[in-house]
Amino acid sequence: MTETRSKKWLLLIVLLALVLRVGFVFWLQSKLDATDQKFLIAGDAEGYWELARSLVNGDDYSVHQPPRYVHRMPGLPVLLSASMSIFGESFLAARLMLATIGALTCWLVYLFGKRIHSLNVGLVAAGLVAVSPAAIGFSGLILSETAFGFAMVLSLLGLHAIVVELDETRKTARTQRRLWLISILTGLAIALGVYMKPSWVLLGPIAALLLVVFMKPRSRGFLAGVLILSGMFLGLAPWGVRNQMVSGHFKLTTFWMGPSLYDGLNPNATGDSDMRFFDEDQLTLEMSEYEVDQEYKRRAISFAKQNPQRVAKLAVSKLWRYWKPWPNAEQFNKPWIGIGLCLYTIPLLALAAWGTWVTRGHFWSIVILAGPIFYFAGLHTIFVSSLRYRLPAEAPLCVLAAIGLVSVVNFMQKHSKDDSEITG
User: Is this prediction's pTM over 0.90?
Assistant: First the structure.
């Protein structure tokens, strides 16, 4: 397939993704309006919306009483505030904005497949993202998953570009200026992802470590790693300085890690989120945000040390919730939703496994494409778990699935051609 023809197909795929997501948004908004609901999944969505309103009105960036100033990363609230500034407090406009970002993720995934394998793989991978039932569904929710998915793929594209550039500078006398620029931009892309989802913050150190250990010469891998971390720190520094000013503590993420950790590791934990303990304890009435964060971290660690078998059982339960192809939440426990997700997710994982085998000689491709889904699986054996946390990582995995699917189709075509030659 030629480059020009592939671009035409890509445009059709992105348009398909947009139509599916916009159609879902209008359907969802009509359902919510009919029942006077603002959000399909309340809680987090309400907090994001309130923070966005504060940004538009010029109020303090805080939620709840007493005020929590370092409770949520500002990435999604900034996006929502942009929509509010133009269209007012329109839930429909905000959902359509997120649906557009979700559709554009198909374009990034296409670039990934094209660079790692071929034009065909890029198109198939983009198509898989376009028709993903879960991605379509979440694109209409006021949650960070859709925007984070875009930023995550962008940062992974940068990491792949660093690996390619390191190989080129090793083989040729190419200057390292391009490597410096790509590494810093990748760090900034990681920071963008952290602004959407703070748990992405570990990617910078992990990527730097992998580059030092597995790239040759190690001096250049070390340089790239340092520049990635520098770019990430540069991108997050304004948030850290702001947090220092409002709380007295320099923090690149939030003071919500402690309660989140205790949500996953406490005597009543099931693997699902249940934050009732936070309202019942009322620690915010006598402690600062920082102190509450530290106290819940202490409690979670203490529980884990005293109950290792319980923690192990919880980890198994959380892994099941993470990998289960149908939804965990009772509100989505409808046969047609479960069947639709299974018909997509099970073949996707199977094809991705085969694609991993096909690309087994390409270490970096496998690490970059499959790494995120296992990264979040590991994190959510500790924190609470659900399909929601797996969803963004399915986008890069679609490239491996596309490689698997294309290899199967090529094999079948070759086998069919051989049979035709024999019978002819």
Answer: yes
